[in-house]
Amino acid sequence: xxxxxxxxxxxxxxxxxxxxxxxxxxxxxxxxxxxxxxxTLKRRELKIISKYAHERAFEPGEFVFETGQPGxxxxxxxxxxxxxxxxxxxxxxxxxATLKDGEFFGELALLDNSPRSAAALVNSPTKTIAIFxxxxxxxxxxxxxxxxxxxxxxAIITGLRLKATNNLLIEKExxxxxxxxxxxxxx
Amino acid sequence: xxxxxxxxxxxxxxxxxxxxxxxxxxxxxxALNSLLLPVLMGTLAAYIxxxxxxxxxxxxxxxxxxxxxxxxxxxxxxxxxxxRIASVVPSEKQMLELRVQIQYKINQNFLSLLGKNNFNSKxxxxxxxxxxxxxxxxESINLFLMLDNNEEAKFLSYVxxxxxxxxxxxxxxxNKKLPFKQSKLSDAGNTKVEQLIPSIPTLKSNSKIALFFxxxxxxxxxxxxxxxxxxDEGEIKKFILNIVPNRYFEMTFTTLAKVDTAIGNYxxxxxxxxxxxxxxIFIGLVLVGFKLQAAILIGIIAGISNAIPFLGPIIGLGAGxxxxxxxxxxNPVIPFLPANPIVGVLIVxxxxxxxxxxxFQPLVLGKAVNLHPLVVVIGVTGxxxxxxxxxxxxxxxxxxxxxxxxxxxxxxxxxxxxxY
Lengths: 187, 420
Hints:
The complex is a heterodimer of chains A (187) and B (420).
Chain A: H1 2-9, H2 16-34, H3 43-51, E1 54-58, E2 63-65, E3 73-87, E4 93-99, E5 104-105, E6 119-132, H4 133-142, H5 144-185
Antiparallel strand pairs in A: 1-6, 2-6, 3-4, 3-5, 3-6
Helix pairs in contact in A: 2-3, 4-5
Chain B: H1 4-31, H2 33-58, H3 63-88, H4 92-114, H5 125-145, H6 149-160, H7 166-176, H8 182-196, H9 200-219, H10 221-231, H11 235-242, H12 249-288, H13 292-305, H14 311-326, H15 341-364, H16 373-415
Helix pairs in contact in B: 2-3, 2-10, 3-10, 3-13, 4-5, 4-7, 12-13, 12-15, 12-16, 13-14, 14-15
């Protein structure tokens, strides 16, 4: 331990690169651990994923991606705020959701390259971590167990979101039904 | 929102930064010209080996060990093949003998083809038709192979010390009777030979150690490039992505991934195809009755040159035919094969080409890059003008790589709404 300290304190031969990469790797691991999709993973496995994680900073008003573009990556918000928006018939953007630190979006891009169903607009200075489908596919080849765990979590989250969407749909259907009934009761 | 002045400032900054690096790279490209080939070869070897490394990793072998295994394997192969080739490469005395033999055999084959006893006698129908037209190329081949005064003196001193067999001496005497005279080549011949082997006098004066170090200093970089490209865990890709603006981030990654896959498949396919052709020719020549070492050498030449479209098979055939002309007393392994070595080479090369077109190409290069034949012809010719044999060999892979890059960048730029 003391030897390692001595080495790194050497002003000429201190291993700056490893220090630089380590600090970035550690911070990425800390953020990845907070994401529900990756919570079941061990620290060693998170370290492997951190090698494939790309950090990216965005300014307010920038699009992380736009509707219709082929999806290639999932984004995790390290810090900042992102709005998921979609244009309506008259061409105005409607907010679908607002996402903050630790939340993620664009996860369907990890499954295939079908076009993005909505756009991601940056609301305040935001730092993100991007994980690409291509890297996940490579991970499935090189570390099948780890890749499998991520895929399983991805399936669970997609299922949960599908359930939530179904519930929302039923709620809206009920609301429409109620409104119809009110309209029918009117003379 | 972005400050417009800041945008202009950053554009100016990036423009000058880009210009600086472009000039620097251009200068380094010219100044370090000789390092280009070892670096390229190292990268290529790493690229091709990637699937093997992945396979070894999946089998539970750590990456560093897998790289060392591969490096050891490559080193061993280069050493073994190098030794084999070195044992076939003739010495100065053998070179003189070889030239005398080739000259004699070419003339004999030429005369028998035209049905003539000597250059002045009358031949068959073929001689009447094209005999006069064939004399000039044969004459230039003769002048090229003919020994000049210095070489002749050396050859005769070998004869004096009875180091030359009677058979070769007979060939030499027969060659002397030919109508092509030394006077014709006098100056031209000397310069030609010097141009062909310009380094030999300096080689001798600088000793083998100097030669070894001059080769090592350049090629020592190759294994390093090989190791570091293989060790890389995406750092190179991360660096490229870091300098790309947000708008091009996803597009750049997708393009890099697609280009990587396409180029990898193309290069691995081409190398595998060339190796299969080389192996077929090697096996074929052994069956025809060629010596093992000669078959290896011709197989390697044919395999490497097979990467050159159209011209490649001719180079392989040429190497085989030249050897077939000087070799004598061939015993085919399979009884029904012809005992004439030239016919044997023709059959082997034709069979290899047939296999290449019917089996190897569809099997190996199924989804490879398609290039128009005109592009291929212009590319090969252009490559030979720019960088000789290496240019010719690497022209098509380079064009294919550029085609993959450009078509992918275009496709992705459209998909990500960057261009219309």
